[in-house]
Please model this.
Amino acid sequence: MSLYRDTGAVVARGIIPGATRALLRAGSLLLDTLLPPDCPSCHGDVDRAGHFCPTCFRQLTFIADPCCARCGQPFVSASFGGARMICAPCEETPPPWHAGRAALVYDEWSRRLILGLKYGDRTELAPILAAHMGRIGRSMLDRADIVVPVPLHRRRLFGRRYNQAALLAWALARQARIAVGPDTLVRVRATAPLARLGRAARRDILRGVIAIRPTRRDAIANRRVVLVDDVMTTGATLGECTRVLLAAGAASVDVLVAARAPAPDEALHPEKSAVSRERYAVAR
Model:
């Protein structure tokens, strides 16, 4: 892969001569011989690096159609999405982004992978998850100009040493051969953990927390952005990032995440409206 800089972002281009590709394949075969590949989940034997064993692959719940076109929430059947394939929460409170997709349902099996990437220094999981994200989000990546990750506050970044969303963004940009802006967005102040909070509480806490780096405005202006994160729960963080990008002049923002979790208020109170009673669905 050759890398070059373009408007403050890094672009990956697949310009690899045939001889170089052959050498890379030979090197990969040699490495697999010396260090046999294992399953990213159970560490059992597999044929190729980055592939799940059949047992673990069957445990992962991939999100395919039918699902909500705005947030990726899976539907029990297409009839739950209505004519526009939009879930009840997204109809009642439309997110600021254009389209949203997730590769996996956030459950016991995907949680193991994502928490390993997020807290367990298992950075090798980023390209594996990104491969599935790229498959499910191919249409939005095909029309995108730049991939931007959700940022970490510098205090959390110092403790963790890397931003898992940025690793996913880098991997997606390499796959799609488009620009990546790993430091386009910044968190101007730290926030308390949001895990137990509902949609409205998260939105209130996050207001004004995200900003665009001034030196990256030109890279965003009139660009079609794919915003990347590991998990979407309520969408509050992604929503705040989207509003900042649009205010900076982005032409459009789509959202692509590794996994989709039911929001706490959605999962506990699906009866909150007549529309939800008729159409609410969460894959478990």
Summary: Residues 18-34 form the longest helix (17 residues). The chain has 13 helices and nine strands.
